Fold each of these.
Amino acid sequence: MILVVEDQPDLLSVLLSMIKAVGYEAVSAGSGEEGLLRCGELGASLRLLLVDLCLPGIDGCEMVARSRESHSAPVVFMSGGAPQPLLELALAKGDDFLSKPIALADLRRVLDRHLAN
């Protein structure tokens, strides 16, 4: 299962539809705090996190750092304009990165890279 953490409802809906279109299943969280809860709920079924860098409350990097205690799933960060220090931290801490707006072909390539058996 893919967990998508994105605070913009319209974008979240589009991302979930795109993930389904390329053959994967996903659930969502609208904040870093909710993302932490979902990570715990998903447990071993969590196969990948797709996380926005700029979230209200705790940002994507902090959410991922805290969630690493409960999973070892790959992390793909996404952003459409994060501040440079946060972007550098994400590139160091994540397994991959997608720039918004995200093209379907790019999403498929990244998901297949980390999830294809």
Amino acid sequence: MFDLYIDEDAMRISFVNILRSQGFDVLTAEEANQLSKDDLDQLTFATDQERVLFSHNIIDFKQIHEKQMKKGGNHAGILLAPQRKFSPLQQSRLIYLISRQLTYHKIKNNLLFVSNWAK
């Protein structure tokens, strides 16, 4: 199981609580005093903390990931999900499924769409 960093777009209390009840070590942008920081700063913070970043901000984080990989950079891994496609429970179940199949080291420097894990 990997540690998670939840950015501002995805910090619903119910979602965070479900993840924690599943055994995830979760840190939110609010808890980390990272509110209003730009997306690259959020990803840098998550990487420094060795936490996989979860967000609904698909467009921006996809672009950041591509730029990071082109310049030979690295990051702790990014999980993305559309904001209203899944309930907090569904999202947490999909993240749990991912965590059972992929280690932190396999997610590192990768961008994964949570919706690809839905049946």
Amino acid sequence: MSRSKRMKVIAGLAEDEMTTAHATLKEVTNQRNYVQVQMNDLKQYLNEYVAKLTTSGQQFMPIQLQTTQAFIEKLKTAIASQQEQLDSLEDIVKMAHDQWTEKRVRFNALHKVCQKLERDERVALDRAEQKLMDDLAAQNFLK
């Protein structure tokens, strides 16, 4: 097996790793986007809920105020939890992107090496063929 063919096998494996890393990056990015949407929805709901309370002008009994305040606090806790999850996913997305970039650079380097080896092998083969043709021509000339 020639060097270029062996290197092609290695480049193929590197391409598989790059593809897997890209799929992972897409997956964690989708997860992050989903969590971002959920958090935005919670924030929007909280803002609408508070706005509705303040514009209604309705009188509340103390127990209703406590219940309303507890609900608002639960929403704020949920938003904080979503933010923590989002921050964690941001770190994971960054790591996945770095890994994908590393795999892509490695694949591109190996691909270039394969191309160079193939080119070198073609040049060597062309030279050997030319030498053979020159030898045959010299033999025919001497006859």
Amino acid sequence: MTCNGVELYKALGHPVRYQIYQLLLEKPRTTSELSRILNLRAGTIHKHLQKLKIMTDTKQIGNVKIIFLTKKVDVTVSPTNYQEQIEYLDHIV
């Protein structure tokens, strides 16, 4: 599946999806594991994983489906870059 940077950032735009992303950065996980760690129902996790499909994949091992990242996104914002963005927005508004 091809995607652009905007789609990746949109996928991470929800706090739960960002938390899932952070957990998958550590290591591949199952839906049950994500559900337990985040204290959310498996159905809720599944819904968010659908939005993260552009950066994840799964591997079936027996009855267990392992979710892992296929793309990593730089989500850091440097103070300089942030200030430049504010100045740019002030200029165009």
